[in-house]
Amino acid sequence: MATPETKLFINGKFVPSISGKTFPVFNPTTEEKIIDVYEADAADVDAAVTAAENAFPAWKSLSAHDRINKCLKFAELIERDQFEIAKLDAEDIGMPVSVNHLFIQRAIRDIKHTSGLAHDVHGETSLNTPGQIHITLRQPYGVCAAILAWNAPVVIFTAKVIPCIVAGNTIIVKSSEKAPLSSLKLGALAAEAGFPPGVINVLSGFGHTVGAALSSHMKIRKLTFTGSTRAGKLIQEAAAKSNLKSVALEMGGKNPLIVFPDCDIEEAAGSAAASLKFNSGQICVSNSRIYAHKDIFQKFLKVFSEKFVEPKIGSPLEPTTFFGPQADKLQFDQILKYIEQAKSSGANLVIGGSRATDKGYYIQPTVFAKVPASADILHEEIFGPVAVIQEFETEEEVIAECNKTEYGLHAGLYTRDISRACRVATALETGVVTVNSGGSVGAYDMPFGGWKQSGNGRELGKLGLEEFYEIKTVIITL
Ligand code: NAD
């Protein structure tokens, strides 16, 4: 593999950070350092903002068609280099190339879909007032920023950058400090795709420095974030204290899956297990708490546990590996801490419960059943291969349990009863509900986002694109 890019991508060029500082990136499979990456801080943010500001007038003045063509070229280049990109994420966060292949295919499809939608962004007209014509214009914000989580770096990058720039904005992306390499590669592909210098800029660095500088920058008018609720609140606060920039937040979840007794249990267990083993449980929509009806509880628990341990643990670089390590030591330690807490809270450990290998941050697929109502593992996002399976009796009781959380990202249910499916889907307080599928099933042409403290704003689809336009009402008196 070619040596990964380590400099910052500002104004169409790779440059060292102004301070010259770097930070180390570790491989979670070997626990060894792979490379040092240049670390941006507030001065580099200013340089990137200036580049983005200078690029904005010409970029917004292009026809939508020209902007769309560049995005489509970008998709073509990602497809061409997908194996190289997947290897970068395998190196720095241990994501199996087999898993990333699916993410990258999704990113390519999202780019094509969003770019196509951009042809059809229009305003409204009204003739309701005699002697006047009213119209609305949708116009770009100007300089925008994106702060990324590490767990699906390519798809999170494209879900934010493409709608932003196709709408005529320019952007500064801050990758996660855990996963800087693939975002820098995407910077290189942006240059090759012909985006003018300054339209897309990519900074590597930490949240409390670069992230904070972006959140409080007076010239950034829109910021889109994916990550934890903790960081999302700090970003929203910094935005409010600076220039009240518009903020869109995609945050965590503690996603319930309800399994009613009339469903296909094999299918429900397989789908729930798939959502939790995919990317080693590091997925915001994984079905991390499952409520199985008392009549099928024991059977579900058995089938789920069998399916959950199926995937082969191995090197993320092997195409046959579907279960890799956790992204870094911090994640690994945090998950093991939750597991230990659950054990001492009296939760019934069914399988797993410890690290899986002597070397590398691998954790055994772990299942707890019938955990006490107060256990942290039932309420907090673990972000690892840990399932909690609870028993329920009535529909009302399980809906109340599912909604008893500040999270509201995703929920699922399995039943053959269409009336119950519609009733429960309507009652669940989440931004996405899947019926007869789990968290691994998504809809590329529908908006995605959370209720409550899981988020605000939407990504993907028409609403995801519309996030990146300001609206202006023009009143013409005849
Ligand atoms: P994180 O909040 O630790 O970090 C996310 C990003 O925010 C990183 O780039 C980080 O450097 C930055 N950041 C941290 N503190 C900051 C601050 N004070 N100011 C500005 N930026 C700051 O989250 P993470 O560990 O990278 O990602 C995991 C979380 O992301 C989970 O909660 C997961 O559910 C969530 N997630 C949500 C979605 C979604 O679409 N809803 C998708 C993927 C991940």
Please explain how this structure is put together.
The chain is an alpha/beta fold. It folds into two domains: 270 residues, Aldehyde Dehydrogenase, Chain A, domain 1 (3-Layer(aba) Sandwich), CATH 3.40.605; 180 residues, 3-Layer(aba) Sandwich (Aldehyde Dehydrogenase, Chain A, domain 2), CATH 3.40.309.10. Helices cover 40% and strands 21% of the residues. The chain is built from 15 helices and 20 strands. A seven-stranded mixed β-sheet has the order 14-15-16-13-12-17-18, with helices on both faces. Strands 9-8-7-10-11-19 form a six-stranded mixed β-sheet, sandwiched between helices. Helix 4 packs parallel to helix 5 and helix 9 crosses helix 10. It starts with 7 loop residues before the first strand and ends with a strand. The model has no long low-confidence stretch (mean pLDDT 97). Its EC number is 1.2.1.3. This is aldehyde dehydrogenase (NAD(+)). It catalyses: an aldehyde + NAD(+) + H2O = a carboxylate + NADH + 2 H(+).
